[in-house]
Amino acid sequence: MSDTEDDQFHHTTVKITILGEPFTGKSSLCQRYLSNSPRAPGGTTHGAEVLAGQCLGLRPPVPLHLCDVAGNSLSTGMLRNYLYASDVVLFVYDLSNLQSFDKLNVWIEKVKEIFDEEPKKPLMALFGNKSDLEHQRAVRLSCVKQLASKYLLENFKGSARTGEMVNYAFTDLIARVLRLPVPSSHVTVPIKLETELELSKDASQPDGVPTSPLIMNRKTLRKIQRKASSSICSVQ
């Protein structure tokens, strides 16, 4: 990167607007990303709260604004103002709450309507929060994939409480906006959960060979993970 480009990225502020139903963990997601700590229980967002920070996963660090929008803003006339100049719109749902996912269709259509006549369209993505409650999952994986495919959305799943996939999701989205590669240190291999192991058994042929592309990809990733664990790791 040239000095001119380097200086440009130092002054490029990325705005990420976070939308979704109440109690999906939007504020906790912002808190986890900016301070790497869970948000204290209690309290709700009123209107919208804009938080400033930096994406430290990219070099040089990228300044950013996180606009945490209250879950009741869908029924107000302020949503257009909150979305102004957004580079990324992140739709958050609670994977243990089906209603929070079903309502995303309304949120997405509203955002598309607001940006319909705007020359600059934001990058839009899904984030399934509360993966630490996977045993209480109410949203089917197939429904998530269908929604992501319908609206061409990037798709992530993680937990604001544990921090799983939070840094990766934000870093990946910011890098896409700036057309930068995501550092290899932020590429994580997903861990197969018990429910996913059961799905892989159901998707197997009689001889035990998985037929689902998703299962095949995860099998490949496990091989990569085993190979990586046998090599020398550097401490970040």
Automatic annotation (TrEMBL):
Q: Which UniProt keywords apply?
A: Nucleotide-binding
Q: Give the similarity note.
A: Belongs to the small GTPase superfamily. Rab family.
User: Per its UniProt record, what Pfam families does this chain match?
Assistant: Ras
Question: Is Nucleotide-binding a UniProt keyword of this protein?
Answer: yes
Listed name of the protein:
Ras-related protein Rab-28-like
Q: Which GO terms fall under molecular function for this chain's record?
A: GTP binding; GTPase activity
